[in-house]
Amino acid sequence: MKQAIFLILSCLLCLATPLKAEQALLQWLLDRYDEDTLPMEELEEWLSHETDSFNINTANREQLELLPFLNPIQIEQLLEYRFDYGPLVSMYELYYLSDWDEESAGLLSEIAFAGEIEDPEMNWKTANFNAGKHTIKMRAGGCLQSKAGYENGLYGGIPVNGWLKYGYRHPLLQANLTLEQDEGEPLDFKHGPGVDFYSGNITFNRLSFINQLIIGDYKANYGQGLVIRENSFFSSTPIVIFTENTCKPYTSTTEYGYLRGMAFELDCKKFELHAFGSYLPYDNTYGLHRTEKEIAQKSNHTKALAGLHANCQIQRFRLGITGLYHFSKKVSDPVWNQSFNISTDYRYTGKRWLITGELAMNQSAHIATVNRFWTNLSSYIQLELAARYYDRYYTAAEAHSYTKSKRCDEYGILSQLGIQFSRNLKADIQLDTYALGPMVKKANYTLFNHESDIQMTYSTQLAHKLFVAYKHKKQSTKSGDNQLHRIKFYWQYGNRTESLQFLKHEYHLKTGLAHVWLHQNAWQKGTMVYLDFSYQYNFNKRNHVQIAWNAAVFDTQNYSTQLYLTVHEVGSSVTGVGLYGLGGYQSILLNCKLSLWKIGVRLSDIRYLDRNTISSDNEQISGNHKTTWRIYVSKEF
Questions:
Q1: What share of the chain is helix, strand, coil (3-state, %, to 5)?
Q2: For residue range 597-614, what is the model confidence (pLDDT) as tens digits?
Q3: Which of 155, 159, 450, 567 has CA 20 to 30 A from 197's CA?
Q4: Inter-residue contact 431 to 451 (CB < 8 Å)
Q5: 54-55 and 112-113 as β-strands: parallel, antiparallel, unpaired?
């Protein structure tokens, strides 16, 4: 019976799809359905719309919903990605979307292509800017308990933090404005719009011969970040990045890690030229200006830079070069500190493999390099290797905060292996080894570091999942060995399936355990047990009401053995909470999405059994518990 169905489906698919698409879709169907439950009607509808060779950049929501292997979250993310960043240049971009797995991206790549589009909205003469999307977002929060900074009069503001964001989106034009105020910061209308931090930008796309022009605050991302890429890290587990080589508008409320000025991009078919410049006051208070001392340090440094990037695309190979000239000084210093960095980055993309990396050098001819190789050995096995070296005298002019104080050579190899034993069972194995050269300042320098991480996941078509992870880290220093052992386990249960079936009621239950053993001067340990429950009532596919509850009990010896809990956040996102000491945590959240409105409210409480004060210095709270609140409102029009 199964062989007959296989033959019939093969004949049907051959009439409408290429051989690869037929095999891929057929295997996907047989992995998920019994011979008597194959979705023939869904399959026939899919075939009738000639989806064997369609342009992913022109496909609408209805066409994407016909594809049985895509879920609503993946479709929504793809549409938002196209709206925010324009048409896909390559189908390989799908592999780097957070909610897309290897299987979905691979299947779609078999039956679709990333082609050019003739869209009147992409032409300045025919575009209708009234059709652009406006978004206003607001978030506010605070702590119900009084902190020492208010009681001793050092904090000049109110115990509420928050931000307000406005955004306009159109394929040709984008604009953003961000206003942010931290808790305890006073309002100041003499030197600005009142709030402590404000940021804004406007972006023009396809402006004559200029592919992109950004005026205002932006982020520059080139290569692997060895010359310029804000908020990336070169450490025990390196972030090896897919080389985007672009500037993006800055919309975060973080008060550092961005540039202020102008950036533009010229695109001449296979050749691109990028130029960017920035002039920005900054300080070393991490954006906190609550006390008179912190306010006095505000904007007491200045940095300026000018950079160029050029790259050439030849079929699957891309080669780029980046140069950056950087100036910085304290406001009181008469002379600027100057530095220069240059790097070359490369990327070659095969059908089932990718190699990418960057080699950088500073003005003193010291180097740093990061290189990555990724391959899809089969539909069940993926392998990634990364090699890196960092000269102790290499200092990036702009990018990593840690490079300012880098005092050692560092080199290492990272390997990651992903194995899909079956549709339900998956394993990820990571091994990372790196060594450091002699430290200049510290006597107890690190000689060698080794990390191993093993994760096993068992999941079903429903939201049922069993996850087990073990991590071991060993660090050899001049005075001895430090070790870390960590175990994570959780079980998840829910009624959401991978299909597009509409559910009126959705529920989700997750319970887990985390335990850590840490050896520094002596063995220390920490334990956390947690429970996560959420229920969502869907009025239709776009409107819903969600309620979520998180709870955890924890027992850790100190801050070094803290454990992190992922909890629901207002606005339907998630956030991380660090727990240490002895106590319990719980939070309750309500999210609503009604028409073009999003509203969220969250209340969290943490109680300790081993202390009568929480935090320290001006953030100290008297008592053994801390209660925080947060509200979120978003409107699109």
A1: 15, 50, 35
A2: 999 999 999 999 999 999
A3: 567
A4: yes
A5: parallel
Tokens of 67: 């594809």
Distance separating alpha carbons of residues 238 and 410, to the nearest angstrom: 11
Quote the CA–CA distance of 564 and 42 in Å, as a whole number: 42
Q: Tell me, what DSSP letter sits at residue 493?
A: E
Can you tell me the distance from the alpha carbon of 420 to that of 619, in angstroms, rounded to the nearest whole number? 47
d(CA 12, CA 481): 63
User: CA triplet 605, 609, 613: central angle to 5 degrees?
Assistant: 75
pLDDT tens per residue across span 370-425: 898 988 887 788 898 988 888 877 877 665 433 444 445 677 888 889 898 887 89
Backbone φ and ψ for 633, nearest 5 degrees, come out as: -135, 135
Q: Please say whether the beta carbons of 250 and 258 come within 8 A.
A: yes
Instruction: Name, in order, each residue with C-beta under 8 angstroms of 593's C-beta and a sequence gap of 6 or more.
Output: 542, 543, 544, 545, 572
What is the rounded CA–CA span in Å between residue 210 and residue 627?
Answer: 51
Which residue type occupies 195?
V
Alpha-carbon gap, residue 247 to 412, rounded angstroms: 29
Region label for 104, one of left (φ > 0), alpha (ψ between -120 and 50) or beta (otherwise): alpha
Nearest residue to 493 (alpha-carbon basis) of 519, 527, 515, 467: 467
Contact 342, 360 (CB under 8 A): yes
* Alpha carbon 588 to its chain's center: 25
In terms of C-beta density within 10 A (0-12 exposed, 13-18 middle, 19 or more buried), how is residue 637 classed? exposed
Q: For residue 30, count other CB atoms closer than 10 A to its CB.
A: 15
Nearest Cα to Cα of residue 219 among 171, 273, 276: 276
Tell me how far apart the alpha carbons of residues 386 and 451 are, in angstroms, rounded to a whole number.
14
Q: How far is the C-alpha of 509 from the C-alpha of 550, rounded, in Å? A: 10
Cα gap 451→237, rounded to integer Å:
9
Any idea what DSSP says for residue 364?
T
Contact between 474 and 450 (Cβ < 8 Å)? yes
Distance of alpha carbon 87 from alpha carbon 277, whole angstroms: 27
Count the alpha carbons within 13 Å of 24 in the hemisphere toward its beta carbon: 22
Contacts of 522 (CB under 8 A, 6+ apart): none
Q: How many CA atoms lie within 13 A of 63 on its CB side?
A: 17
Total number of residues shown for the chain: 637
Q: How far apart are CA 545 and CA 598, in angstroms?
A: 10
- Nearest by Cα to 504 from 545, 469, 468: 545
Strand partners, 627: 605
The answer to whether 585 and 535 are in contact (CB under 8 A) is no
Chain segment 326-356, per-residue pLDDT in tens? 988 888 888 998 889 999 999 887 777 888 8
Asked if residue 128 lies in contact with residue 121, where contact means CB atoms within 8 angstroms, the answer is: yes
d(CA 199, CA 594): 29
pTM of the complete model: 0.78
Quick one: how far is CA 575 from the chain centroid?
A: 12
